[in-house]
């Protein structure tokens, strides 16, 4: 039976939600919805911010495509609700999502497994005293990166060039999350790697190398501007790209992801060492998004990618997985 032949039943495309990434999620969800309908799937939009999740069962939905981003969609909460409802869903399960949404917890797992990720300082709520901020600069040097521990789309991210800028950057990040991550700045090339599948069969797709104006790949340059250049193929030496793919696959597996995930990586300009930044368990699917771009470079178009992910929808406690 091919993906196209598989009977999916009534499918809910979960989009919107209550996170700060709601507008991006709506764009992703509309793209997925159109793609699935174009392939004959009985797909319907479903916004958890406007409807109770219990309606999924009452209205006869058979599975869900999660196109939610950030809190209440990519953090294990919706996944847990769908587990209780017994509705298979796309992407990672409860535990993997709850780890991956937290950049600090993700780093701890990667470091425990011996995987490279930039040095960092974790600032808890109330831990932003001037003396502590001085310690951050002494530990990480300048420039450094400040970002909320549990946000995506580069929201609340600041590149701090001078020590006097740190307090304002931490305050901006803390408006989005009480916990703030201060991270060593890696001077080099920013790349992203899509991984598809589960377990030992998970496989990295084409690498996308990102060239943003001034090296500033922020929210505007991700979604609103057309100034950012994306290189697919990446232009990296084959041996370097192979090393990157092996690292991305391992980082994906140790978090426990399945279905799909996108790894963001910096490659040090001087040493060519790749450094893991974070993993996205529900990547964007907008016209500017990197996941469909990477899949397309390996021969998997947008509609095919959506169908593949839907076909692999499952539960943590599905038969044979518990």
TrEMBL record:
Mg(2+) 2 binds at residues 278, 280. Gene3D superfamilies: 3.40.50.20, ATP-grasp fold, A domain (3.30.1490.20), ATP-grasp fold, B domain (3.30.470.20). Binds 2 magnesium or manganese ions per subunit. Mg(2+) 1 binds at residues 264, 278. GO terms for molecular function: ATP binding; D-alanine-D-alanine ligase activity; metal ion binding. It comes from the Bacteria. Transmembrane segments: none annotated. It catalyses: 2 D-alanine + ATP = D-alanyl-D-alanine + ADP + phosphate + H(+). The active site is at residues 21, 153, 289. Pfam families: Dala_Dala_lig_C, Dala_Dala_lig_N. One of its GO terms (cellular component) is cytosol. Its cofactor is Mn(2+); Mg(2+). InterPro entries: ATP-grasp (IPR011761), ATP_grasp_subdomain_1 (IPR013815), D-Ala_lig_Van_CS (IPR000291), D_ala_D_ala (IPR005905), Dala_Dala_lig_C (IPR011095), Dala_Dala_lig_N (IPR011127), PreATP-grasp_dom_sf (IPR016185). Belongs to the D-alanine--D-alanine ligase family. Cell wall formation. HAMAP family: Dala_Dala_lig. NCBIfam families: D_ala_D_alaTIGR, PRK01372.1. PANTHER family: D-ALANINE--D-ALANINE LIGASE, D-ALANINE--D-ALANINE LIGASE B. This is D-alanine--D-alanine ligase.
